[in-house]
């Protein structure tokens, strides 16, 4: 373990070095270059890392980032976790291992099963798998006893088939990782603007005058965004960052594709860096809006009067409500200085083409929907939606999480979507809403005997309240994990547990008609193909669509859908998507020549497609929470060496933390206040809803973070996040605002 100084610049030669180091540790050199050569190139492999869009012109030097290379190394690792591996390690033994160890045992190669009373997983043939799952699902008292989770790496084709199967089976129980991620963005944007997706395209960044980045760490989680930010700056844009932590990637970017960047010379990014207190973004944005409105009394051009008049609803009520709030109170809640606020107001006053970006720092709070709605208010004041260089930019996480939703992976599908399924496929889909992630965990926990199926992902480590979620999985009659890699969810099976290994992004998919491509949708609503180039490492690996089709045909039969013909040629799946999902008409035609399909987006064109046909100003209250003298507000965040629950390595290079993940980033004044000895471990604990939770053995790292705020890593501290602590309206677990106390014995 080593704690050093946080970095003040991201990417550069060190990133290239670390990326290649991880790649060569996992894979042979020629294989590495074969995959990287097509990564994010047209017709090649879409990076299984984040959902950041590809630029129109792809760099021949390489269109990927350090963490994209790590994602590839993770998936395409030469090593296999095969039947011999499972014969050697019991699940009890594997539970004692770290997430890092679990992930580094290699790719899953063979279907495995474990039954109650057994200590080890053992191999099982696919036919038995499909028959057993089919007959179990058919025997359930009601289809709502099945729960079908999805993680955002699943392709459009797999997602479409999966939701179709589940709805023919008879339930909307389709929780997904989005419930823990950008659900709050979807709810806020649908209500205010009419579509639950962002409005900007990549090109808008190059024309923008001001870019606001709230609660996002792109240097680690969306590194290719830094190239877009640099280009925006080169074109004259200003950047304001709102984040409790000084994230290296937002300070300065060493573009490895330029000579200076490769030499480690960084281009500064943030013009103003506001280290707001955790969950005080509403206060900050309201303070800015109030000041803009005040200034507009002398200079009406500061706000876009025509836009407000013509395109929005609720302005007067909004302005009146802001007038009731005391500016001093707002500013003091943010923890920022008045002159920082004035500087922000100056930047916003003088510019009209504004993009607001955000990620988990806004979406994982009890008032997350309010956070986003308040940002929409600010953009509306400036008329900054629906014109070039301006708009909303929720930066998505998983590489196809947005596409999965478009394909119908949702526990609350719209009536319109279900009506189309009904008329296309001639069946009556279930109309009752299903359970989301929190609802699913509660249901599995409280009512034993459910069947839980997981299309990718790692629910146990991703969800809050780890011990509660563990019990929920163990209470199931059957657990089914379609996965590429071993993870902790596999180690807590139901009465019978399956691990079903599948082909990944980098693999070749071979079906009767030949090699198949898949499609994905990026964070900005562009759909394109992806195709791997690695031969399947084992004869047992099947694609996700293939596995779904087989389970579907054994469960719901082939009358409504001929599942077998669909997987002979995935064009057939896309033909069904074309008939069922708006914007995908002539889908196969449109993909020809590696073309990109741009999905319809009303707000992008200044058309607000909500129920009132106008953009809505909303009234959002300040978050109400009280911190006692000995309370701390904890956010659980990602290190530089992880992808969600997949741990690439033990370092968080940009934050200067090496070889350890069980840390608490803490302000120096708070360390003195609590009289903590840096040489000794601490325990974090809380009590919520009558349950005591604690995580022991954490190491204090003195850090530049606002007082009373602390940061820990996810998933290590998920045990402290109460399942019932969730965002209003979106039900997203509030894993960025968890009240805790600290002790040292
Ligand atoms: N390499 C890599 N890439 C990834 C992922 C990964 O794990 N690794 N995960 C993918 C996924 S699924 C997602 S959703 C995204 C996540 O991308 P991010 O949202 O960037 O991920 P987090 O680490 O959760 O970072 C949250 C950021 O918000 C800040 N923050 C926390 N609370 C607040 C607050 O109250 N207000 C403000 N203003 N800021 C706050 C934190 O300091 C931190 O910088 O990345 C995707 N890409
Ligand atoms: N405390 C806290 N909790 C959080 C968050 C947080 O910030 N703080 N973030 C939340 C967010 S934003 C998200 S998105 C969720 C993530 O939740 P999930 O999406 O459930 O978790 P991942 O870690 O992305 O899933 C990793 C697993 O997916 C499988 N996998 C990888 N690639 C493929 C593939 O191509 N096909 C299939 N079938 N399987 C594959 C591998 O087996 C791997 O172990 O976690 C959430 N949990
Ligand atoms: Mo996410």
Brief descriptors of the model:
globular, single chain, 745 residues, 4 domains, binds ligand MGD, binds molybdenum atom, Rossmann fold, Dimethylsulfoxide Reductase, domain 2, 6-stranded mixed β-barrel, 6-stranded mixed sheet, alpha/beta
Structure description:
With 745 residues, the protein is an alpha/beta fold. The protein has four domains: 2-76, no CATH class; 80-176 and 403-584, Rossmann fold, CATH 3.40.50; 183-394, Dimethylsulfoxide Reductase, domain 2; 632-743, Barwin-like endoglucanases (Beta Barrel). 36% of the residues lie in helices and 17% in strands. The strands form ten sheets. Strands 6-5-18-17-16-7 form a six-stranded mixed β-sheet, with helices on both faces. Strands 25-32-29-31-30-33 form a six-stranded mixed β-barrel. The chain has a five-stranded parallel β-sheet with strand order 12-9-8-14-15, with helices on both faces. Helix 1 (12-26) runs parallel beside helix 3 (66-76), helix 15 crosses helix 19 (338-349) and helix 24 crosses helix 26 (466-474). It is globular, with a radius of gyration of 25 Å. The relative contact order is 0.16. The model has no long low-confidence stretch (mean pLDDT 97).
